[in-house]
Design brief:
heterodimer, A: alpha+beta, 9-stranded mixed β-barrel, two-stranded antiparallel ribbon, B: alpha+beta, Metallo-beta-lactamase, Chain A, 9-stranded mixed beta barrel, 7-stranded mixed β-sheet, 16 helices, 23 strands
Chain lengths: 294, 611
């Protein structure tokens, strides 16, 4: 029969093993790996938006006042109802719909590439915007508020092991490479889709602040300079296609009652042959908004 | 001094800390809509709430067949008794109101994670198996939730789902077929859960339909289903979805609808097809979707004056020739169906086998050349048991070919198995030039032949003028299984032999008779199992889908006849093009043209007073 004392001893032993397994691996001091080398997911390459949801709010400029499902407060609705695209254009504010709070929602292509070991850059052809994602926590905004603001990036996603003690028994190739100070294959570079296991094991989290006021939708649904945009980037391989998903959470104490959460899909393209840079533009809405019964 | 109790608690704390380091990735828990509450949709607000407009397919990678099908969809279709309790399929379920609860299930013996159970709104619980089990064989039954297996890939749970029933992707007629497959990724980021879904359907989609749904962690205890149902945890039991009846569901007759009627628009008669386009000032061609409408290039084809370049029918998969009937496997396999009944699949033909204490009953022994192989498979299912009864559902040589060999006793003097068939089939078999040992020994004239065998009542039901004048259904009342013979083919359109007394009307009557026999266990599925002539196991939901197809095509052809169209004109109009990919054979009597010709001929004959 198993005694309670024996059970306590076993529990203690396993607990120690667990703590050891999750602690820093032993070995000589190593230089920390760069964010590029430590990438949990390879996002680099060419991507095109697939607008399968909210089509009428994304592919066209919807009518003024059509802000259904955006958690606007009274002030937000007031501002949205006063939207004037001509005034935006005249005031050099044509990029309001192309800021970090809304750009991923639009029908655009993306080019994602590393500019150095700790900076990832995203270019959009629609509106010709440039987003700079800083993995270096010491990086600071070097100017005033902008359309794309200041973006701080970090990797998410330590994979949960099937066996919490498995790493002690049989280190995976990737974990072994990490302990040896080598970059996991597929952590850098871009282009063609790679085998899934080593390039899509985690997520990228980006928090963007220091924004100029912008639009969540092209029809003037506002976010303010106090908005904080949190994004989560993931790659998924499905049915032979390589997809990028960007979940966007916009929190804005000025115009929103709760965070506005949407997710956007992009599909990998083999090259940039369809890249078509265009400037920001304000478009006249299609039609007049008819408020639905529901 | 450190006590053992102290060591125990230290260990427990260490273990808790260790697991907490990984807990963020787990998807288990209760999840609200991203905007909070059960209606907190922040994407696809109308689609997921009150419902989409008719004709709103913009951004969906549908092909011409699905566009045609959806354009003729009538919301009145939901009044059909078999459809009133349709659940949201797993391809759509998490788009609906309510949240998502994910529960871990462990194997009680191995303590390993065995499954995730997903509870969404509208009561369709779903299991994602994590124990490495394979997906079922192709001829196993399909369900609205499908069969799902999962695996962890890094920080996300990957789910593969097969064995789906035909279901909707959007509640305005945009559907997927039962050939669809789904891949999903569940990934947790902080307190948000993201569900990325891709549905692939070779019949209706030009490329995988990709969309994502976001949820927010709900930390309130015991509120998820209670909030939706309205009873538990202080709920008042009122309001939307309040009561178990909402989840259990039973069809009711709320409006007068003729038995067997399947509401749908006739081609060109849907006056509301432009509902979405008009309401949002979107060009109709854009509203009607297609793969191109989801990409940035399409913006250039839109303009504020309401014009758009017309979408050309997709040149790829949607215009490929009709699907061939599934390759007929030379192998013989068996699958338990329910109770005492098994399905033996022999070169694409289904042989139904009932096994019990008295011996073996076989429905449709199958082709003669496969008789030995089928008998060997039956011997595996029922070792040492004799075949006592054979039922022929009609006179098709592919059904009765094995009669002689199956009926032979163990010795030349032993009593042969009884062979039961309807008199009309029996006469035709007798006149087919086969040996006497192929012929039924027990023909019947009346509507139903009753039998009590292996401890259960069995009804052999004549369905007049169906695919021929001699079709019967076989209903195992205790096992709760119906064998349809040629009335349901699954892999193809039915082969209705007009020259042998078959009619489209009789075949539809037979299908509705099958629906009268079947009782769904839960939300239009389960309960009575149905074995078609070929293909996979059906239940009431599948029979209704097949009946709908037949009824809708019949109605379209009838409508065309009413307009004075010739057979050639009807065939050229491809009035069944939304079903051809699923049911049209590439050769033989079940091709698209042959089927239309049969329906046309049957309706013309009926109009002329012939049977």
């Amino acid at each position: 029969m198993i005694s309670l004392r024996w059970l306590h001893a076993v529990t203690f032993g396993w607990s120690l093993l667990a703590a050891v397994a999750l602690a820093q691996p032993p070995g000589p001091p190593q230089a920390p790996r760069s964010p590029r080398a430590a990438a949990q997911v390879d996002l680099t390459g060419n991507w095109v938006a697939q607008i399968t949801e909210d089509w009428r709010w994304r592919m066209i400029t919807p009518p003024k006042g059509d802000y259904a499902s955006v958690p606007l407060n009274a002030l937000g609705r007031q501002v949205a109802d006063a939207w004037d695209p001509a005034a935006d254009a005249a005031a050099d504010e044509a990029c309001r719909a192309f800021g970090a709070g809304g750009i991923m929602r639009l029908p655009t292509r993306l080019k994602i590439a590393w500019t150095d070991e700790s900076t990832l850059r995203i270019d959009t052809d629609l509106g010709s915007q440039v987003r700079v994602l800083h993995f270096d926590p010491a990086a600071r905004a070097d100017s005033g508020p902008s359309w794309q603001g200041h973006s701080a990036a970090e990797w998410l996603g330590v994979p949960p092991p099937a066996n919490p003690f498995g790493a002690l028994v049989a280190p995976t190739q990737e974990a072994g490479a990490a302990r040896a100070g080598r970059s996991p294959a597929g952590a850098a570079g871009g282009g063609a889709a790679r085998a899934e296991p080593q390039s899509t094991r985690g997520s990228l989290k980006v928090v963007t602040t220091n924004l100029r006021p912008g639009y969540l939708r092209k029809n003037g649904v506002p976010y303010s300079e106090r908005a904080v945009v949190t994004e989560y980037y993931d790659r998924f391989g499905m049915f032979g296609n390589d997809y990028l998903q960007v979940v966007t959470v916009v929190a804005d104490p000025t115009y929103l009652t709760t965070p506005f959460v949407v997710s956007n899909q992009f599909k990998r393209e083999p090259d940039d042959s369809k890249w078509n840079p265009t400037p920001c533009a304000t478009d006249a809405p299609l039609g007049t908004f008819q408020r639905p019964a529901f | 001094m450190v006590s053992m109790r102290g060591i125990f608690w230290f260990g427990a704390i260490c273990a808790a800390l260790a697991s907490a380091a990984h807990a963020q990735n787990d998807v288990a828990g209760d999840w609200d809509q991203a905007g909070g509450g059960i209606f907190g949709f922040q994407e696809e607000f109308l689609d997921r709430g009150g419902g989409p407009d008719l004709g709103d397919y913009a951004g969906l990678p549908i092909n011409d067949a699905l566009r045609f099908k959806a354009s003729l969809y009538s919301p009145s279709w939901l009044t059909v008794p078999e459809h009133q309790c349709l659940p949201h399929p797993s391809t759509y379920q998490y788009r609906s109101p309510g949240g998502l609860s994910i529960v871990k299930e462990y194997d009680p013996v191995t303590q390993q994670l065995a499954a995730y159970r997903l509870y969404g709104s509208y009561g369709l619980a779903r299991v994602v198996w994590m124990d490495g089990r394979p997906h079922p064989p192709a001829n196993a039954r399909h369900t609205y939730e499908g069969f799902s297996t999962g695996r962890w890939e890094g920080n996300r749970l990957a789910i593969e789902t097969t064995h789906l029933k035909a279901g909707f992707l959007r509640r305005n007629g945009i559907a997927h077929s039962d050939r669809a497959r789904m891949l999903e990724y569940l990934v947790r980021h902080d307190d948000y859960l993201s569900l990325m879904t891709a549905v692939e359907d070779p019949l209706y989609l030009d490329e995988p339909f990709v969309r994502s749904t976001d949820f927010r962690l709900d930390v309130r205890p015991n509120t998820r289903l209670a909030e939706f149902g309205g009873f538990a945890n202080g709920g008042d039991g009122e309001g939307f979805g309040a009561s178990d009846v909402f989840f259990k569901c039973a069809p009711s007759e709320e409006i007068a609808i003729e038995r067997g009627a399947v509401p749908s628009f006739m081609p060109g008669a849907n006056g509301d097809l432009d509902m979405f386009a008009k309401r949002h000032n979107v060009p109709l061609e854009a509203a009607l979707g297609g793969s191109a409408t989801q990409y940035p290039e399409y913006v250039a084809r839109l303009s504020s004056n309401g014009n758009a370049t017309a979408i050309q029918p997709s040149a790829g998969r949607s215009q490929r020739p009709p699907q061939a009937a599934q390759a007929e496997s030379p192998t013989v396999t068996s699958l338990h169906v329910a109770g005492q009944v098994w399905l033996v699949a022999a070169a694409g033909r289904n042989v139904a086998v009932q096994v019990g204490a008295e011996g073996v009953l076989v429905v449709n022994p199958g082709p003669e050349e496969l008789a030995d192989a089928v008998l060997a498979e039956i011997e595996k299912i029922a070792p040492g048991k004799r075949i006592r009864v054979i039922v022929d559902t009609d006179d098709d040589a592919a059904h009765i070919g094995g009669n002689a060999k199956f009926a032979t006793g163990p010795t030349p003097m032993a009593q042969r198995a009884a062979i039961i068939a309807h008199e009309n089939a029996s006469l035709r078999i007798a006149g087919a030039g086969l040996s006497d040992r192929h012929s039924p020994t027990d023909a019947f004239f009346r509507g139903t032949r009753e039998l009590f065998f292996n401890g259960e009542p069995i009804e052999i039901i004549h369905v007049p003028a169906a695919t021929s004048d001699g079709d019967v259904l076989v209903f195992f009342r205790e096992s709760d299984v119906v064998v349809t013979g040629s009335v349901i083919e699954d892999l193809t359109y039915p082969v209705i032999r007009l020259a042998d007394g078959g009619t489209i009307g009789g075949t539809l009557a037979a299908l509705n008779r099958v629906l009268d026999l079947t009782v769904a266990e839960w939300r239009a599925q389960g309960g009575t199992m149905v074995i078609p002539n070929r293909g996979r196991i059906y239940d009431e939901g599948d029979v209704a889908e097949y009946r709908d197809m037949m009824t809708i095509v019949r109605d379209r052809v009838q409508d065309a006849i009413g307009k004075g169209q010739t057979l050639e004109q009807v065939q050229a109009a491809r009035l069944a093009r939304d079903y051809d990919g699923r049911y049209a054979a590439v050769a033989g009597p079940a091709t698209a043209d042959e089927f239309i010709e049969t329906v046309y001929g049957s309706l013309k004959a009926a109009a002329n007073g012939a049977r």
